Amino acid sequence: MHKFTVLIVEDEKSISDFTSRTLVSHGYRVSCASTGKEALSLASSLCPDIILLDLGLPDLDGMEIIQTIRTWSGTPIIVVSARTLEDDKVQALDAGADDYLTKPFGVSELLARIRTSLRHSNKLNNGNGLPQHPYRARGLEIDFSKRTITVEGQAIHLTPIEYKIVAFLAQNSGKVMTYSAVMNNVWGPFAESDNKILRVNMANIRRKLERNPAQPVYIFTEVGVGYRMADDEDMP
Ligand code: CA
To answer: What is the DSSP letter of 106?
Structure first.
């Protein structure tokens, strides 16, 4: 069986050791870097399948590392940062990171994030331009070729803007999408920087999709960062 290689970039030895032990025991091959320079050199020599990147490194700025890697590689990058630094997470996602983990994180969360990112990178690499298969999760179904949305078989009527938002989140299901990523995708590069229009649309979407809009099961809010749509159940 092909083992996936994870590059762990972390200067705190206890966290690096814990993460490494956890991943090895779950069948991953692991390499560790404790500085940004080491990370960049291992990223190119090792060609890891996924990179876990601590944003607080002694030598290089995390954003710089992401941007540098993104100039030549699409390897999924999951950033790891402290709970309070929401701006960092947004910046990292917009710089090209795929997802983030908040310290302290648990084993199941770590494994879930890695699985999701790997699945997405495989899916993207296999992309052949054909229409995507329908998105399905918890009774919600989106047919991208017909542009229809149903919940438990009942048609849901969304405005074109609302549909674009939901389709974009569904095509990136399981991953957090920043407010600005959604805004850019839906309203284009001249979108206003204020995300009020997005929040208004999301409130309407939830009223139409969710049984209880205050406790959504399809589209989750990542406070201060963006939205994450429930994982596609059919995705391999
Ligand atoms: Ca650190």
So the answer is: -
